[in-house]
Each structure stands twice: as structure tokens, then as C-alpha cells.
Design a protein that fits this description.
globular; alpha+beta; three-stranded antiparallel beta sheet; DNA-binding; Transcriptional regulator (chains A, B); transcription regulation (chains A, B); Arc Repressor Mutant, subunit A
Chain lengths: 110, 110
DNA sequence: CAGAATCCCTTACGATACTG
DNA sequence: CAGTATCGTAAGGGATTCTG
């Protein structure tokens, strides 16, 4: 079962490479965890939550997460603007596995 | 359980951040998968396997994987040099979870 | 064979200023 | 409030050459 990924011998085409591409990006994981905890979060709430992140980088990370179908962006047409972010079903299913990596990390550092 | 990582509100200290730091690096995953399949592999075998990778990058990736305790480097004192790489127990336990991400990726792209 | 050393380049990210 | 636009920096990685 591992073997099938290896035999392709082209890592770019493996499922793992795809998964990694979704979560690479400095703040994507923090964003996902934040959405998992609070369900619905706004742009500036995320910004305060992550502490050190530029508008540009946060915006880019959110766009990619949305494009990849992990989060949902809901825009309310009003002044001042209001945008809410939340996890999609796909995002939730990914988080279940990522939580295992959290636990593994807790148990294996040191 | 998720919550405890969030409440710290310092992602750098979470188990997930630690796990990610181990597998970031362009070729680390391919290396780990290769070691999982073939058990014992030499430097130039890895290089041929990955196809497009420079000596420097491969060397760096291997050093970090060794420093982080995921792989074992065995050096034979001889001319010409001979070095063998293999997975540690820690590396094997990580691969079990990473395989879930492979499967998730296979099922969720498109 | 298994790297180390050097040079170059791309990309991600941050800081700042500005806008509908 | 939720971004966009612009500029600048630093790290990662590639190609090439050299060595015990």
C-alpha cells in the first residue's frame, strides 16, 4: 500500500504531496485550528489571533485555503465590509488526521 | 483536546508545529518513503531515486532527518566511502500516521 | 562514493501605505 | 473592516566544482 506511492516514483503525483501542498504556508495550520475551535471567524480576529502576520500573508493563505476547498468564505455586502471564514467538510475531515500528528508531536519531542 | 493547542496560542510550541518541522524540506518525505520501502539505502541510491536533487540539498535533508532522530546513518570506514541510511523506530512510528495523509490525499484531490 | 564549498536565483514572507 | 499594492529581505534550493 505504501508501495504504490513509491512505484510511481514521481512524488509530485502522490496523495501525500497533494496533502502537504494544502497545509504548507506559514500560518495555514494555525488558521485551520482557529476555525476548528471557534467555527466562524473574521479576518481581523484571525489577525489578532496569529499575532505576527501581515495582511498580505494572511490574505494569501486564506485565498489558497479557500481555493483548495478547506475553508468557506462568506461575504456580506455591507459597509463596513464583513467576511466570515469557517471550515468546510473537507477541512474538517483533514483536521481529524492532523490531530493525530499533533498528538504524535507531543509524545515524540524531547 | 484540540483546545489545549489553541489555548497556548503559540503555535511554535504545539506538537503539530514540531511534527511539521520534521517533515518540511522538499525531499524529506520521499526519503522517508524510500527508506520505508527498501530499509537500507545509500547516498547515491537516494540521489538516483529522487531524480532531481542536488548533493547539497540531499545532504542537508539527511542531516536534519538524522538530527531529529527519524533516520539512522551508518558509516563504514573504508575507501571508497560507504554510508547506509535506514529508518529509526521513531521514523517508523511517524510513517504510520503519514500514510493516513497519503490516503486522505488520494481520496480528496479532484 | 559521499559529501563540502561556492555562487546564483526564486519564492515566501514582512512592513508599510493606501482604498472601497 | 477587509483587504490591495509596492518594496525589500532572508532562507531554501539548484548547478557546478572540488576532495579524502
Amino acid at each position: 500500500m505504501i508501495k504504490k506511492y513509491i512505484e510511481k516514483s514521481n512524488f509530485e503525483e502522490t496523495g501525500f504531496s497533494y496533502t502537504l501542498s494544502l497545509i504548507s504556508g506559514k500560518h495555514k495550520m494555525v488558521i485551520l485550528y482557529c476555525l476548528m475551535e471557534f467555527q466562524i471567524v473574521r479576518f481581523n480576529e484571525l489577525k489578532r489571533y496569529i499575532k505576527k502576520v501581515s495582511d498580505k500573508t494572511l490574505s494569501n493563505n486564506l485565498k489558497e485555503l479557500e481555493k483548495d476547498g478547506l475553508i468557506i468564505r462568506t461575504e456580506y455586502n455591507q459597509i463596513p465590509p464583513k467576511v466570515e471564514y469557517s471550515l468546510s467538510e473537507k477541512g474538517k475531515s483533514l483536521m481529524e488526521i492532523l490531530d493525530l500528528l499533533c498528538i504524535w508531536g507531543e509524545n515524540n519531542r524531547n
